[in-house]
Amino acid sequence: MKTNIKYLSIALIAFGCGYFFNQTNSSQNNQAKLSLIQQKPIGVDNNPKLGAFSISLNVKDLKASQEFYHKLGFVDFGGNLKNNYLILKNQNALIGIFKGFFKGNILTFNPGWDENAKNTKQFNDVREIQKYLKTNGIKLSAEVSDTTKGPGFITLTDPDGNEILIDQHR
Length: 170
What we know:
Distance between the termini: 34 Å
Strand order of the largest sheet: 2-3-4-1-5-8-7-6
Structural class: alpha+beta
């Protein structure tokens, strides 16, 4: 648990630094650039649009974790205690806490969703992202059939062993 808190602290510090440095640039210029990036398909700027980001934490005591994250300003956003998982939200930051679902923690991306679980107009389908990753030499641990449409997911592991889930819900 101490390791998880250490990583969460590092992530929060990194986010804070990024926020601070971003504020030193022109807000309008940054918004214009962000808008253009979000509208381009894979290939135009050579980056997939991964959608909403959250971290999924494997917890030992769901209620204790819920209370801890409430103290950090997170509120319940989805899930429930009886199903052994909760999705917590603080502004656009999302944390999923899960008991007994998986081993370790997982970085999660949801193509087609924003941080409020609302559909976005434009997004890269998980099959496009899968093709892009494979073309760029990324080994996937789970793939989605490229003959299907709609919901699907892929998984991969970063060089440090962190699991990544790209989970499309529509």
